[in-house]
Amino acid sequence: MAFEMVGVVGLGTMGAGIAEVFARAGLRVIGVEADAEALARGRAHVERSTGRAVDKGKLTPAEQAEILGRITLTTSRDDLRAADLVVEAIPEIMDYKISLFQDLDRICGPETVLATNTSSLSVTAIAAATGRPGRVIGMHFFNPAPVMKLVEVVGTVVTEPGVLSGVAELAERLGKTVVAVGDRAGFVVNRLLLPYLNHAAVLLEQGVAARDDVDAAMKLGVGLPMGPFALLDLIGLDTAYEVMGVLYDETRDRRHAPAPLLRELVTAGLLGRKSGRGFYGEDGQRPAPVDSAAVSFGVVGDELAGRLRAAGLEPSGDPDVLLHEAERPVIEYAAGLKDPAKLVGVHLVGDRVAELAATVLTAERAATGAAGLMRAAGLTPVPCKDRAGFVVDALLYPYLNDAVRMHDAGYASIADIDAAMRLGCGYPAGPFEMLETLGLARVRDGLRALYAEYREPAFAPAPLLDQLVTAGLGAFPRP
Ligand code: CAA
Questions:
Q1: Pairing label, strands 297-300, 177-181
Q2: How does strand 150-154 pair with strand 353-358?
Q3: Which atom of ligand 1 is nearest to the CA of 426?
Q4: What is the fold of 297-385?
Q5: b/e map of 154-190 (b: 16 or more CB within 10 Å)?
Q6: d(CA 440, CA 415)
Q7: Ligand 1 binding pocket, CB closer than 6 Å
Q8: How far is CA 59 from CA 67, 120, 208, in A?
Q9: Is 70 exceeded by the pLDDT of residue 136?
Q10: Could you write out the DSSP letters of every residue in 158-205?
Q11: Whether residue 163 has pLDDT greater than 80
Q12: Fold of the CATH domain 392-470
């Protein structure tokens, strides 16, 4: 299958990035938008993106000009007549997609492969609406498309032999790694990523922790390239909302119901980076941290005591704050104390983050004092409510559990799921690698605690995880 001329319909964030990727690989690109204004925005997007590469010395101005010269922009779909492949990247609304694919089916030659960059909609339904269902597939890129190395290639039950492998070869020519998947809402990455992002929005709404603290916890504590709210702003809250809606419709899992906060932001036109404001905006400044050098403290927990001591911080006899190192909520312990207002639970996450759990009895002074002490010890404090999983485990463990369930359901291999999350989202490790590093038993027990507190069926440990722990195994069997 020879692909030399490629059409891209829709030059928003994804489409413009996809057009750039094709042009960089030497293909000729026809970019289609609805009107001149949208075309100009698409062109500016590619110019900015390649311009940044020129500024960094990664492209010469001549190479940039060649890339831009390979992209022809038009408002007429009829100009796609000669394309070998057309990739659609218009909004996630099924009616729009079907009408576009029916147009493309009429305009393009019978050999042309039609691909959708949908994040979640049914590729089979789009294919079935055309007269060439065997040549309609999913080709799902990740934002920013020029940077993220993954392409999910989605086949359906009617995909013709050779189409998938032809498109996979093309994706490899673009410098991408391919994970081939079946047509299931969210495919691999969005099925695992979006529920986690939605859950972060729910925790924010419930006041479990603040936006910046959640982002700091996931970035510095887990090593993710961005926290969930920064990533939601990058993806676009409208896209995230749509994807969650599709996931919910398919699964009826209440965790997939879009967080009301997402709907509110989208309705207000706060879509994230593309509209200039989403979870973050110009007003995203944090208050200056309270200086609490004078706070005296007591400490329960060897690792925490050691970290404080290493920073020259020594406990005292009659403390203002009592720090209790904990993996689980500390309210029971607090309730047994003479002065529970002084107690703050401390959960250390990696080398850089300390989650600080304030109970319903914790005094404000103790909470701010604990945050100051953590900063003095070189840790980023993440104040949160005293809930099972605090912030990091509450967000991370259900995601890991979902990955185990996805594999156990036969949808994708461990290697593909790990590669997809590393390359699609820039995660430092895939979910199975993370599970094995954290310890299967620890994650299983953490999930049990989450389940016991929230009674959320999906938090119950996946049977495969539970069985591996029961069998005393520390790793997943791989072929
Ligand atoms: N377009 C082109 N290039 C870009 C870019 C953009 N929008 N943003 C960043 N880059 C490039 C930079 O030029 C830089 O390139 P070099 O290394 O060649 O110099 C590189 O990416 C790193 O950028 P920065 O140093 O500016 O910033 P960073 O190190 O913080 O990385 C990031 C930025 C690549 C976005 C990184 O934070 C990341 O990987 N984030 C996770 C993104 C993610 O999860 N994407 C998937 C979202 S889900 C999705 O897209 C699917 C869906 O359907 C919803």
A1: unpaired
A2: unpaired
A3: 39
A4: Rossmann fold (3.40.50)
A5: bbbeebeeebbebbbebbeebebbbbbbbbbbbbbbb
A6: 17
A7: 49, 52, 56, 58, 119, 142-144, 146-148, 190, 193, 225-226, 231, 235, 239, 424-426
A8: 10, 34, 45
A9: yes
A10: TPPTTHHHHHHHHHHHTTPEEEEE-S-TTTTHHHHHHHHHHHHHHHHH
A11: yes
A12: N-(1-d-carboxylethyl)-l-norvaline Dehydrogenase; domain 2 (1.10.1040)
Provide, for the chain, the percentages of residues in helix, strand and coil under a 3-state DSSP scheme, each rounded to the nearest 5: 50, 15, 35
Contact yes or no for 320/348 (Cβ under 8 A): no
Nearest C-alpha to atom 14 of ligand 1 is from which residue? 147
The number of residues making up the chain comes to: 479
Q: What residue owns the CA closest to ligand 1's atom 37? A: 225
Ligand 1 centroid from CA 235, angstroms: 11
User: What pLDDT is recorded for position 104?
Assistant: 98
Question: Regarding the domain delimited by 189-267, which CATH topology (the fold level of the hierarchy) does it fall under?
Answer: N-(1-d-carboxylethyl)-l-norvaline Dehydrogenase; domain 2 (1.10.1040)
Three-state SS string over 27-75 comes to CEEEEECCCHHHHHHHHHHHHHHHHHHHHCCCCCHHHHHHHHHCEEEEC
Judge if 189-267 and 297-385 fold alike in CATH terms.
no
Mean per-residue pLDDT, 384-407: 98
Enumerate the domain spans of the chain.
5-181, 189-267, 297-385, 392-470
Of 239, 8, 229, 222, which is closest to residue 121 (Cα–Cα)? 239
- For range 226-233, the mean pLDDT: 98
Structure tokens, 43: 């062109």
Q: Cα(240) to centroid of ligand 1, in Å?
A: 17
CA 193 to ligand 1: nearest atom: 48
CATH superfamily of 5-181: NAD(P)-binding Rossmann-like Domain (3.40.50.720)
Cβ-in-10-Å burial (0-12, 13-18, 19+) of 296 comes to middle
Look up tokens 């309210």; give the residue.
331
Compute the distance between CA of residue 386 and CA of residue 354 in angstroms, rounded to an integer: 13
Count of CB atoms situated within 10 Å of the CB of 450: 23
Question: How far, in Å, is the centroid of ligand 1 from the Cα of 57?
Answer: 17
Q: Does residue 283 have a pLDDT over 60?
A: no
Sign of the torsion formed by the C-alpha atoms of 248, 254, 256 and 261: positive
Q: What is the mean pLDDT of residues 208-235?
A: 97
Mean pLDDT of the chain: 95
What are the tokens at 389?
Answer: 């999983």
Q: How far apart are CA 310 and CA 307, in angstroms?
A: 5
pLDDT, position 293: 57
What separation in angstroms does the CA of 469 have from each of 399, 406, 466, 476, 477?
18, 18, 5, 10, 12
